[in-house]
Amino acid sequence: MTLDHAWLPGLRGRGRLNLNESAYGPLPEVARELRAQMSEVNRYPEFLPDRTRSVVATHLGVDDESVSVGAGATGVITQALQDAARRGLDAGIVDPVMVTAIPTFDGYPIIATMLGLRFRGMPLDPAGRVVLGDLRAAVTADTVAVVICSPHNPTGTVVDEQELHDFIDDLPEHVIVVLDEAYIEFAERPPDLMRLIGTHERLLVIRTFSKAYGLAALRVGYGVGAQRLVGRVREFEMPFSVGPLAAAAVPLCLSRQDELTRRVNAMRTERAKMAALLAASWRAPVAGEGNFLFVGGPAGVELGSVLASCGVLVRSYRSDGVRITVGDDAATAEIGAVLHTVTATV
């Protein structure tokens, strides 16, 4: 379906469905605390985020020494890859490589360039899944890190838990694995975190408060793993990297798992509605488990153009397709209005 979308009438919406943000604002108690903290923004936060680290560790049921905290998942990922780059230098690797599946989070190639890592991307399979066998084949003597996103960004697919264990077991000793679980709260059957970190000493599991917890602007995330690995990663924690607003919000969010569950369930309901809408009006999306949907191929590219021309911000991936954040009722209705108008004019 090829159209001149610029003329579509009355659909210049303000949908912001390109960054996988939460459709919900902060919890009322978080909002109150943030307002209270504003009077203290002339003060520096904690030099290193030890209080936040302790809160996260207690929530997970691990020792503080098993947790590294940073400015969002991106901050902790950067710390982990800094350690990987250092390992490469220590091992005499002149041109260290990180391996991951593509397309992926836009930050990964940027971080790789920042740290002097060569970025080696392996394509997803036609169903939008990470192919662990292909990642393993891409690991060579110069590889220092493998990054696996599950649920994967941008398709939302998840890796099989046992296949993940087998994959890590098969890697050379000098390679670390970063398991990016930024969207894990939305997954239907998340892997056993304790088994993962208890089994693999070279695995760092990354999580964030930006997505399900709705704290994207506050920039706070964490990594959890074996104490030896985390100890090395913590050497790259930036002083003052977790601000007082984030430090105040984290314990409040973790104390309200009931509200988290309610919001996640609401998102899943909205995701199913949007998936059905896309399947009926355009093309079925990938069966993903994030707070977003991905429509692949030329149909997805065209859909991205349609939505963008109507003022709905989405994330297009050149020839690969389009990722649409699952928003609230109104966002789904807006997409439905766009598709209805497009199909009615063809």
TrEMBL record:
Any Pfam family: Aminotran_1_2
Residue intervals of the Aminotransferase class I/classII large domain: 17-331
Cofactor(s) needed by this chain: pyridoxal 5'-phosphate
Superkingdom of origin organism: Bacteria
Keywords from the named record: Aminotransferase, Pyridoxal phosphate, Transferase
GO molecular function per UniProt: pyridoxal phosphate binding; transaminase activity
Family, per entry: Belongs to the class-II pyridoxal-phosphate-dependent aminotransferase family.
Annotated protein name in UniProt: Aminotransferase
Species, as recorded: Gordonia jinhuaensis
